[in-house]
Amino acid sequence: MSLPRADYDPRRVCHNPCPNVTLGKHRRTVGVYLAGALFALANWTFLDAAVLSAHAKSKWEDEPPVHVTFVDWIPGICSLLGYLVINMIDKDRVRGEEGFGDSRAVWRARLVLFIGFALMAGGLAGSVTVLILKYILMGYPPQFTYYGYANVSQSVALMLSAVVLWIAQNTSNEYEYNLTL
Fold it and tell me: Transmembrane residues, as ranges (predicted)?
């Protein structure tokens, strides 16, 4: 089945259009709150797993077979450092707009931004590695593999929060005026 020629644009990737959601003048505020909620959810999920691990009792033994250790914390720390680095970069400096230094300053800002994204990607890769090597391959029951899944969900939610905050900070605010002569 082919679409009529008038409705088809060969430059489009998807045939079904994505819904156009407009939030009006509150786009930036909604984005910042959504990023904050994702950030809180990410850290709450992992801290829940860490507290649950500290107080876990197994049905089969006195001591549970696995706990959340420092190895589980490392991917979250890397993702959190990447999150901080990404959000400390001035967006106008990365774009290289007028009045923000020479091309070397733009290059350095882009390098630091790359390091931030690399830290977040390393945190995600590390959390998946810990999940597979520490929890899945050892064959622990689902109550203990939750610790690994919480670690991965923390890294994913931190990445999504960084992206949402980056996009929200690049939108105009209702109180922002552009004065040009």
Answer: 32-53, 73-90, 111-137, 149-168
C-alpha distances (whole Å) from 127 to each of 62, 79, 135 are 28, 10, 11
Residue 1 resides in a domain = no
What is the Cα–Cα distance from 132 to 139, expressed in whole angstroms?
10
What span, in angstroms and rounded, lies between the C-alpha atoms of 180 and 57? 66
How many distinct structural domains can be found in the chain? 1
| Cβ burial, residue 2 (10 Å; 0-12/13-18/19+) | exposed
Task: Evaluate whether residue 18 is within a structural domain.
Answer: no
User: What is the pTM assigned to this prediction?
Assistant: 0.78
Give 127's contacts (C-beta < 8 A, 6+ positions apart): 75, 76, 79, 148, 151, 152, 154, 155
Residue 59, pLDDT > 90, answer no
Query: Does any domain span residue 59?
Result: yes
